[in-house]
Fold this protein.
Amino acid sequence: MQCKLRTNKFYERTKTNAQRANGGVFLGFQPSIAYRRHEANLTKLPEHLIATLYFKLIYTTVATINIRPKQPIPYELFQYTSSNFRKYIIMADINYHSRTDRQKT
């Protein structure tokens, strides 16, 4: 879903079958920024958005992901991002409080 709010452009992806909280992911940026959305062909990837933002001669890929408490951390996203993009930022809501000690490490 894409929507405009004042001078910003936003992309949002939500899951409608959530049992408790609605979850979802969100990415916002200025509409004057050129961008390209990417779809990772990973079958078990939870809610996520990946986009490359272009600032004149500089570009950065931004990935945002929501990992629900009972879901495993999808290391495939980190492998996919590091293998396919030179410059990237990954933002993740991993529900840290519900993770095992091993996952927290």
About this structure: The first strand starts at residue 2 and ends at 5. The two ends are 35 Å apart (CA to CA). The domain at 2-104 is CATH 3.60.10.10 (Deoxyribonuclease I; Chain A).
